[in-house]
Amino acid sequence: MKNSPPFTTAVIAVNPKIDSRTQRRLPCSLKFNDVFQYLAPDDAPRPQGRPALWGVEFPSAVASRPRTLFPKP
């Protein structure tokens, strides 16, 4: 189903994830260039000295740790 219209012509891609246990999820993705084409057409996709999106400035870099993976039991 994912490989046929309307999914193949959509701007947002669906990426179903089903594991062998009980987890079911539907992550979606949007291509980098499409963000600027459709959501922020007045902004340029180049690094900014003071990053802002839709007029809202980020105060500093977003601090986040790398994801920690735990081994399967």
Contiguous uncertain segments of 5+ residues: none
Query: Can you count the helices?
Result: 1
According to DSSP, the number of beta strands is 6
Strand order of the largest sheet: 1-4
Main β sheet profile: 2 strands, antiparallel
What fraction of residues sit in β-strands? 15-25%
Distance between the termini: 34 Å
Instruction: Evaluate the radius of gyration.
Output: 18 Å
Helix coverage percent of residues? 10-25%
Shape: flat
Summarize the helix and strand pattern as letters: EEEEHEE
SS-based structural class? Answer: alpha+beta
What integer is the average pLDDT? 84
What report would you give on this structure?
The strands form three sheets. Strands 1-4 form a two-stranded antiparallel ribbon. The protein has a two-stranded antiparallel sheet with strand order 2-3. The chain is flat. The protein is an alpha+beta fold. It has a domain at 1-42. The protein contains one helix and six strands, in the order ββββαββ. 11% of the residues lie in helices and 19% in strands. The mean pLDDT is 84.
